[in-house]
Each structure stands twice: as C-alpha cells, then as structure tokens.
Design a protein that fits this description.
The structure is a single chain. With 89 residues, the chain is mostly helical. It has one domain. Helix content is 72%, strand content 0%. The protein has 3 helices and no strands. The chain is elongated and about 60 Å long. The N and C termini lie far apart (67 Å). The relative contact order is 0.10.
Length: 89
C-alpha cells in the first residue's frame, strides 16, 4: 500500500510561525533541517509573536535571538569558570 501524505485542514498559527522562522534560519545559516539551534530559534520567534499578538520581523528576531544566545553562553562560561576555580581550592 503506497504511503500517502496526510495534509491537515489547517495548521495552528504558532506552527506556521515556527515553520516560517525555521525556513529563515536554514536559509540564513545553510543549516540542515532538524538542527537544535534552528528549532530553538523557531520557538523563540513563535513565542515573541505570541507575546506581541502579531507577526514580528523575522530578521530582527534573529538578531535578538543571537544576542540572547551570546549572553546565555557568556553566563554559562562564567558559571563553569567559577565552578572550576572553586573545585581546586
């Protein structure tokens, strides 16, 4: 029996926004589909749109996501450095 693609009657607005952002991310970074960073950005974009209750500029969202991610990475590195320093005291 051949497999058939089931197409839903409609998709949620959140799902559509996530797919839009995921496509933007993949085009911008030449990433392969299914990567964790792409999904993270897609969720970030969808949540931002939901918070503002309207579609947001995906390019601006990407800039904000990169800045938030850089800040998070810096905090994580700082915490690990402190942990490493206290383990050798």
């Amino acid at each position: 029996m051949p497999s058939e693609t089931i197409v839903p009657e409609a998709v949620s607005v959140r799902y559509a926004r996530e797919q839009y952002a995921l496509g933007y991310f993949q085009g911008r970074t030449n990433a392969e589909p299914g990567g964790g960073a792409g999904l993270d950005f897609a969720r970030f974009y969808a949540e931002w749109c939901a918070r503002e209750d309207r579609p947001m500029d995906v390019q601006e969202a990407y800039r904000r996501w990169l800045a938030d991610r850089a800040e998070w990475v810096a905090e994580l590195r700082y915490e690990r450095a402190l942990e490493h320093a206290t383990n050798y005291d």
